[in-house]
Design a protein that fits this description.
Elements: E1 12-16, E2 22-26, H1 45-55, E3 62-66, H2 72-81, E4 84-89, H3 92-104, E5 111-115, E6 128-131, H4 135-148, E7 154-158, E8 169-174, E9 180-187
């Protein structure tokens, strides 16, 4: 089995999954898994399209999806925009599903799935960060975004704003069952209110 070396400031180990597929996991700390910051709700295809369109990722850029679920945003970004991706998912089941989906799309060289807590992840390699977290989770994550993200990094949040930041663009999209949802685009440092 081929494994890639990840450059993170967190301890990383390999978790071998049932199909000979590898995902990467941070050292487990059970109390971390009791504070789930993201809903387990898949983003609709229309929302993914709009989020990526707004972020405008360039070939070769690095996209981080925090709470990546089944990996659908990462797969769409790698296939359509030719970006590299890192997905971080706290649910072991969803991390395994995401890794399997990446393998099905033959994107193992472009996408890495980490089974772990994105609150303990060095986000500095990111050019684009995608979020579908509750507002309180975005607020909890905000100091890490401000600490790690470099100028011109775009952050796209589906449904929930980042408290204390000003979006450079918003857009509405139709979600499941016809509900209207807002997508927020932020850019470092322009969106950070001082």
């Amino acid at each position: 089995m081929r494994c890639r070396v990840l450059r993170f400031s967190i301890p990383v180990s390999t978790l071998v999954l049932g199909l000979g597929l590898a995902a990467y996991a941070q050292e487990p700390d059970l109390k971390d898994f009791k504070t789930n910051l993201a809903p387990t709700v898949g983003s609709p295809e229309r929302a993914i399209d709009k989020m990526l369109e707004m972020a405008n990722p360039k070939p070769g850029e690095m996209l981080y999806d925090l709470g990546c679920g089944d990996g659908r945003i990462l797969i769409a970004a790698a296939e359509r925009y030719k970006v590299k991706g890192v997905g971080i998912e706290i649910s072991k089941r969803l991390a395994e599903t995401a890794a399997e989906n990446v393998k099905k799309h033959r994107l193992q060289d472009d996408i890495t799935i980490i089974h772990g807590n994105f609150m303990k992840t060095d986000l500095s390699p990111a050019n684009v960060v995608t979020l579908y977290l509750a507002t309180t989770a975005n607020d909890t994550l905000r100091p890490n975004l401000e600490r790690y993200l470099h100028p011109s990094t775009r952050v796209v949040s589906y449904d929930y704003p980042i408290p204390g930041w000003k979006p450079i663009e918003t857009s509405e999209t139709e979600g499941h069952h016809g509900a209207v949802h807002t997508i927020y685009l932020y850019e470092v440092p322009n969106s950070i209110k001082k």
